[in-house]
Amino acid sequence: MPKRVDHEQRRREITGALWEIARAEGLGAVTLRRVAAEAGMSMNLVQYYFPAKEEMLEYGLRHLIEVASDRLRGEIEAASGPRAVLRAALLGLLAVDERSRLLTAVHHAYLAHAITDARVAALLNRIPRELAGQLAPALDHPAALTEVDGLLAMVTGLALGLLVGTYTTAEAVALVDHRLTTLFG
């Protein structure tokens, strides 16, 4: 009897290898051959799932968005009250543990790639606006959308700063809390 293969799981294994290369060296270092080697698979198997590098990169980004969204949704659902919801969302975007460091590093690799790839830019550009639109109602403020846009931009910078050592986790959390105290009193 033939072995049953979970094709989605296989794509995710390949994506995991892609993410590890992207984290270590950026998306410029990603090739089908490198991903195959990192995943411990044959080049033919990787090409079966992703005939072209661009398809693999796009799937990798879509999966990154899905994983990050699920993680953030869980953080938000565990919070109660407008300030706690906003805080959970903002802290959920910071690179504070191994998994979030991986997601943040890969996200920033895609951001750098988006400078020269319009398709990647189009996927990434919608994320902050959609998230701000979802979070703005938590802030009872006349300029709620602008405030949340600013908070998200701040957290994006803090996340990168955590990756490169500009800020410690405690410093980043203190900056978020300071800004929330200013907004909520």
Descriptive labels:
185 residues, mainly alpha, Tetracycline Repressor, domain 2, 0% strand
List the helices and strands and how they pair.
Blueprint: H1 7-25, H2 32-39, H3 43-49, H4 53-77, H5 82-92, H6 98-114, H7 118-135, H8 144-164, H9 169-184
Describe this structure in words.
The protein is an all-alpha fold and 185 residues long. The protein has one domain (53-184): Tetracycline Repressor, domain 2, CATH 1.10.357. The protein is built from nine helices and no strands. The protein has helices at residues 7-25, 32-39, 43-49, 53-77, 82-92, 98-114, 118-135, 144-164, 169-184. Helix 6 crosses helix 8. The longest helix is centred in the middle third of the chain and has 25 residues, at 53-77. The N and C termini lie far apart (66 Å).
Summarize this structure briefly.
The protein has 185 residues and is mostly helical.
- State mean pLDDT (0 to 100 scale): 93
Distance between the termini: 66 Å
Instruction: Please identify the structural class as seen in this structure.
Output: mainly alpha
Question: What is the CATH topology classification name?
Answer: Tetracycline Repressor, domain 2
Helix content: over 70%
Taken as a percent bin, the fraction of beta residues is: under 5%
User: What is the makeup of the main sheet?
Assistant: none
* CATH evolutionary superfamily: Tetracycline Repressor, domain 2
H-E string: HHHHHHHHH
Low-confidence stretches: none
How many distinct helices?
A: 9
Count of all domains = 1
Shape category: elongated
- E-strand count: 0
CATH architecture term = Orthogonal Bundle
Overall radius of gyration? 18 Å
CATH C-level label: Mainly Alpha
